[in-house]
Amino acid sequence: QVQLVESGGGFVQPGGSLRLSCATSGIRFHMYDVSWYRQTPGSEREWVARISLGGGIQYRYPVMGRFTISRDNVNKSLALQMNSLKPEDTATYYCHVFWDTGGEYWGQGIQVIVSS
Fold it and tell me: What is the sign, positive or negative, of the torsion defined by CA atoms of 23, 91, 88, 95?
């Protein structure tokens, strides 16, 4: 059974930091591209950051320089360090894994609220 479980969300004031984690099981994690997405009510889910299985990293422009994505192939997990958070970062964040042979999977989502 494939499971992706996010943790680390919550409430933070503008300028603060949070670290999201995603623990996976049931997949050959090292074969997957891994990503973080986010979604606000009434909006499309948007890609935030990605690490390919080869280690290439990409960020959505608004989070560049503030967010850092990482992966741990030994522990089959990924993380998103979020610094200098802004109110517009408020969203539900999802971890996502994709392998063109193995398919794709989503976590259940975790809420991040940035507010004073």
Answer: positive
Closest to 48 measured CA to CA, from 90, 101, 3, 1: 90
Exposed e or buried b per residue across 26-60, where buried means at least 16 C-beta atoms within 10 angstroms of its C-beta? ebebeebbbbbbbeeeeeeeeebbbbebeeeeebe
Tokens 């992966």, residue located? 71
Q: Which residue has the tokens 């949070």?
A: 18
Q: From residue 65, give the alpha-carbon distance in Å to each of 68, 84, 86, 116.
A: 8, 9, 13, 22
Q: Which of 71, 66, 45, 73 is nearest to 56 (CA)?
A: 71
The pLDDT, as a whole number, for residue 100 is 84
Tens-digit pLDDT profile for residues 84-109: 999 999 999 999 999 988 789 999 99
- Give every strand in the sheet of 3-7, ordered side by side: 3-7, 18-25, 77-82, 67-72
Is the pLDDT reported for residue 59 higher than 90?
yes
